[in-house]
Amino acid sequence: MRSPTSTTTPIHGFESPAKDYAVKRLCLDDILIEKSGSTYITIMSDDQMNQIGLYKNDLVILDSDLTPKEADIVCVLLNGQLKCRMLALHPKALKPCHSSNPTLEFIEEFDDLIIVGVVTRTVRCFRKLNTSIFD
After folding, report:
1. pLDDT recorded at residue 112
2. Which residues contact 121 (CB under 8 A, 6 or more apart)?
3. What is the mean pLDDT of the chain?
4. How high is the pLDDT of residue 1?
5. pLDDT confidence bin for 111, thresholds 50/70/90
6. Which residues contact 49 (CB under 8 A, 6 or more apart)?
7. Which residues neighbour 66 within 8 Å (Cβ) at sequence distance 6 or greater?
8. Would the pLDDT of 74 be above 90?
9. Region for 71 from its dihedrals, namely left if φ exceeds 0, alpha if ψ lies in -120 to 50, beta otherwise
10. How many angstroms separate the CA atoms of 99 and 30, rounded?
11. Is residue 51 classed as helix, strand or coil in its secondary structure?
12. Which 3 state secondary structure label does DSSP give 20?
């Protein structure tokens, strides 16, 4: 029994003119996630941000290590309710970006606010998403 000495296929005739243009495999982690230790993925649960292109069932990629700035899209826990909204700092408020609900949700001193993370990327799925992976 002969053991192979090379894993490459021998060249017969001319080499492929496209051999120098080999496509590197893409990894979505490398493209979408900057800091894996502080990155979370969740699913948009409502249409309150549809005016900026963020729709119900979109995947939302959050970075909990970023300091939120004015007009950042953030996911927050406000009085125990998870929301994804645009952040206003002066006055401190959350702004839904939806034509039927354009009013600011002002954050009062007595409100319990935890900023979960800043939205850095979103992914739109055109077919039904298997949400069981998030359970």
Report:
1. 93
2. 32, 61
3. 84
4. 47
5. very high
6. 55, 73, 84, 85, 86, 96, 97, 98
7. 38, 72, 117, 118, 120
8. yes
9. left
10. 35
11. helix
12. helix
